[in-house]
Specification:
The complex is a heterodimer of chains A (104) and B (434). Chain A has 104 residues and is mainly alpha-helical. Helices cover 54% and strands 4% of the residues of chain A. In chain A, strand 1 and strand 2 form a beta hairpin. Chain B has 2 domains: 378 residues, Peroxisomal Thiolase, Chain A, domain 1; 43 residues, no CATH class. In chain B, a hairpin with a 4-residue loop joins strand 14 and strand 15. Chain B is 35% helix and 19% strand. At the A-B interface, helix 2 of A face loops of B.
């Protein structure tokens, strides 16, 4: 996926996201494995997504447009696809021109 | 006669220890929990002392499941969740012992506000930078809002809501029954337990987790109460600063913590073989409806709450063997309260020991009444009266037996605990040997 190879301050984006997911859910980085579903596997609730977005924005010195993460939240909360692998999906959120700007 | 209500478990987080044993031992020893403020740099403040809870976050977090919920909790809420968990364990009330919809929660809590240091720092920083950005010192709300939004984790904004302690306690215990929050300042913990009693008497629940929690050792509360002139400034001798009923008293010392009790209807407690501690016998509440920070000089508001409590518990003044006083250590409270006790207990007032455990733990604000009711419960259970420490010089206007300086062996059959809040709210609880 496009986000996988993105580098932020010399670190792989996925690595950073896993660390932050682990912080948000108070689990180990190993548990925040790529492919883990935040809701189904890791017990996330709506406020955790707010926390996640805030910490990611902070770490990446960028802003996720409101409409984008709002849509992302709605999908999660409706439980439309609880089995979806959220970690890569979060990475996806950032895998755009904003990241390139922040890391460039 | 209405069915009795039992207290079957207690939980405590206080400046002199957590849980029944530690707290009871400290009360017996007359230990002070007051010291220099460590939570923040209090240099330059008129008051630089407080009674802080020494338990670390990890210690308290063991009562939270899942651990990630801790980030949603204010310091006061974490105290509440820990104390409620301890109380339930103390009552040996297992997970399936009560139907979730018959388990209620009532919590006395402080008001809203940025009382947790990190949120306060973010807000203050945003306000300063907003002013700096504009090159003037005006309170620029649009600039503040923009900067604050950038820096504030949305999670942090949830911590200040006063009803969330009750919500978190409910989540931890799957308590799907009535859930309410009482915010009558220093009277809140007492009223919460009183309203818990009413829930059971009305048949709205079988078991209620009731108590109070507060965390006033923060710059906002310390400065606020300091500006109102209510805090002791005896910074040089922290353990001597809280001296209720002493002639040299100069105000209260802010404390923090939580106290919770498990309340059960008698038939329910009996059916499950619960370890009953005491009966929660009566509750009375009133309001001075007079002035915000002055009590009625005739003390009739407070006296009325005590009389209502006796009546509610079908108790006469002669039945009362101990009073745990509000006893804050402000000039006015201790005089008015002494009058209120005289007026409500009549000639019995000369014979009843009255002590203020605030002399040891400080003023726990919204948690005070809950923790102090438990101190009275310990007096009945452990057969000693907790002392009023630092009572060295008698005050002519405070002329009751305040159990000065050392715990005293005694076997009270019934006890009262009083609380009075800024705003004029008064409340009193009665407990009786089971």
């Amino acid at each position: 996926m496009p986000g996988d190879s993105a580098l932020v301050n010399g670190r792989r984006l996925e690595e950073l996201v896993r660390e932050i997911v682990a912080e948000v859910l108070v689990i180990s980085v190993e548990e925040a494995r790529p492919g883990a579903a935040l809701v189904r596997d890791l017990g996330a609730e709506s406020i955790d997504f707010m926390d996640l977005v805030f910490r990611l924005e902070d770490a990446l010195e960028t802003r996720i447009p409101y409409t984008r993460w709002q849509r992302f939240l709605e999908v999660r909360l409706a439980g439309a696809d609880l089995s979806a692998a959220i970690t890569p999906e979060v990475v996806q959120l950032f895998a755009t021109e904003e990241i390139e700007r922040a890391s460039g | 006669m209405a069915e009795r209500v039992a207290i079957t478990g207690v939980g405590l987080v206080t400046p002199i220890g957590s849980g029944y044993e530690e707290f009871s031992n400290a009360l017996r020893a007359g230990r002070s929990g007051v010291g220099r403020i460590t939570a923040f740099d209090s240099a330059g403040l008129d008051t630089r002392i407080a009674a802080e809870v020494r338990n670390g976050a990890t210690d308290l977090a063991q009562w939270v499941e899942p651990t990630k919920a801790v980030k949603l909790m204010s310091r006061a809420t974490l105290f509440a969740v820990a104390a409620a968990g301890m109380a339930r364990r103390h009552a040996r009330l297992g997970r399936d012992a009560v139907s979730p919809r018959r388990l209620g929660v009532v919590v006395g809590a402080g008001g809203m506000g940025p009382t947790d240091l990190d949120l306060l720092a973010t807000q203050a920083g945003a306000a300063i930078d907003a002013a700096r950005e504009n090159g003037n010192d005006r309170w620029d709300i649009p600039a503040f809002a923009r900067i604050f939004a950038q820096r504030t984790n949305p999670v942090a904004t949830l911590r200040g809501l006063p009803n969330l302690a009750a919500a978190h306690v409910a989540i931890q215990h799957d308590a799907q029954g009535p859930n309410s929050t009482i915010t009558t300042a220093c009277c809140a913990g007492t009223q919460a337990i009183g309203e818990g009693l009413r829930l059971l008497q009305r048949g709205d629940a079988d078991v209620v987790l009731a108590g109070g929690a507060d965390a006033g050792v923060n710059p906002v509360a310390v400065l606020g109460f300091s500006l109102l002139g209510t805090l002791s400034r005896r910074n040089g001798e922290p353990d001597k600063a809280s001296r209720p009923f002493d002639r040299e008293r100069d105000g209260f010392v802010i404390g923090e913590g939580a106290g919770f009790v498990v309340l059960e209807r008698e038939d329910f407690a009996r059916a499950r073989g619960a370890p009953v501690l005491v009966e929660l016998a009566g509750f009375g509440a009133s309001c001075d409806a007079y002035r915000i920070t002055d009590e009625r000089p005739d003390a009739e508001g407070a006296a009325h709450a005590i009389r209502l409590c006796l009546e509610d518990g079908v108790l006469s003044p002669e039945d009362i063997g101990y009073v745990n006083a509000h006893g804050t250590g402000t000039r006015m409270n201790d005089i008015t309260e002494t009058r209120a006790i005289r007026q409500s207990l009549g000639s019995r007032a000369d014979l009843v020991p009255v002590s203020s455990t605030k002399s040891m733990i400080g003023h726990l604000l919204a948690a005070a009444g809950a923790v102090e009711l438990i101190a009275a419960l310990i007096a009945i259970q452990e057969q000693f009266l907790p002392p009023t420490i630092n009572l060295e010089i008698a005050d002519d206007e405070c002329d009751l037996d305040y159990v000065p300086n050392a715990a005293r062996p005694a076997t009270p059959d019934a006890a009262l605990s009083t609380s009075f809040g800024f705003g004029g709210q008064n409340a009193c609880l009665a407990i009786r040997r089971w």
